[in-house]
């Protein structure tokens, strides 16, 4: 599942309050890891894009912790109510996988075009 697809699922399924709570818990737990360059916690107040910004904050922190190999140092999180876990249909997962492959191909093509441009300019 791509980041864009994950953002869509999270923002479309969870309420603003649920996402804000998840962000608070995640940032609190990440803060206890004592990492020096941890992304700053930003209290979101804007009404229009608040959910989108909260989801971005959560995913940015998860990406940071993953890159620092610190995800395994976080507690194990569980859902108090399994009905509040988004369900993704098999057909949608197949579409997500196809979209991810296309995204990867697009990135490789862009890299090839950039490399060729640099070679032609020298």
Structure characterization notes:
The structure is a single chain. This protein is mainly α. The chain folds into 2 domains: 80 residues, no CATH class; 35 residues. The chain is 63% helix and 0% strand. It is globular. The N and C termini lie far apart (39 Å).
Short description:
Helix content is 63%, strand content 0%.
Instruction: Specify the overall morphology.
Output: globular
Contiguous low-pLDDT stretches (5 residues minimum) are none
Helical/strand content category: mainly alpha
Order of secondary-structure elements: HHHH
What is the C-alpha radius of gyration, as a whole number of Å? 18 Å
Mean pLDDT metric: 85
How would a textbook summarize the main sheet? none
Helix content: 55-70%
Number of helices: 4
Strand elements, count:
0
In terms of DSSP E residues, the strand content is under 5%
Q: Oligomeric form of this entry?
A: single chain
Termini separation comes to 39 Å
Structural topology:
Blueprint: H1 3-13, H2 16-31, H3 50-67, H4 90-121
Helix pairs in contact: 1-3, 2-3
What structural keywords apply?
122 residues, mainly alpha, 2 domains, 4 helices, 0% strand, globular
């Amino acid at each position: 599942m791509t980041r864009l697809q994950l953002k869509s699922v999270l923002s479309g399924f969870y309420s603003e309050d649920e996402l804000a709570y998840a962000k608070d818990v995640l940032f609190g737990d990440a803060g206890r890891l004592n990492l020096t360059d941890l992304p700053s916690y930003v209290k979101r107040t804007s009404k229009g894009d608040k959910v989108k910004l909260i989801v971005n904050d959560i995913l940015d922190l998860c990406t940071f912790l993953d890159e620092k190999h610190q995800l395994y140092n976080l507690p194990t999180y569980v859902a108090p109510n399994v009905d509040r876990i988004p369900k993704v249909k098999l057909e949608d997962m197949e579409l997500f996988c196809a979209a991810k492959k296309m995204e990867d191909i697009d990135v490789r093509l862009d890299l090839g075009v950039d490399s060729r441009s640099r070679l032609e300019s020298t």
